[in-house]
Amino acid sequence: MNKLLTLLLIAMFFNGQSLAAGSTSPADEVAQRMTALSVRQEVADTDSRVAQTRKLLDKAVKLTNEDPIAVESICSRYVGHLHDSAHIEAAPLELLEALVTFGKAGKPMRDTLQDYVVARKSVPTRGHVEAMAVLGKKK
Q: Apex CA 72: angle with CA 67 and CA 74, to 5°?
């Protein structure tokens, strides 16, 4: 019992030290990953684009009542869906933007993102800006 208590205290000490040393939160890590995947290069956690992504992510989390990893996961899934079903190259941040712009409290994320996918497939350019415009007209 004493060994277990000692191990727990040591783990808590080291965990507290890593948090004090400025480790990032899970939401920060998600924002950094989504940004890096979208710009297709490594980005530092201090990059201003990561901060912009974090703001969008925070809005999506608040809107959907989901955790950041769930938001990241569904955005990534729909990126894959666009690629597999229509050979459209999309970025996770495009889906995150659509979710934040057109999502509504109580509406499932998948419904909002499915609307985006339909719009993206329907526009002649198959581009993000045009798909957002189509969704904006439906609003």
A: 100
Q: Name every residue whose Cβ is closer than 8 Å to that of residue 50 and which is 6 or more positions away in sequence.
A: 28, 31, 32, 35, 43, 44
C-alpha atoms less than 13 angstroms from C-alpha of 38 in its C-beta half-sphere? 21
- Longest distance between any two alpha carbons in the chain, whole Å: 68
Q: Which residue has the tokens 């007209």?
A: 137
Smallest Cα–Cα separation from 72: which of 56, 88, 85, 87?
A: 56
Give me the residue label for tokens 């912009």.
Answer: 52
Whether the CA torsion 137, 49, 124, 111 is positive or negative: it is negative
pLDDT at 104 exceeding the cut of 90: yes
Encoded tokens for 35: 């940004």
Structure tokens at 85: 């079903």
Confidence of residue 22 (pLDDT cuts 50, 70, 90): low
User: For the whole model, what pTM was predicted?
Assistant: 0.83
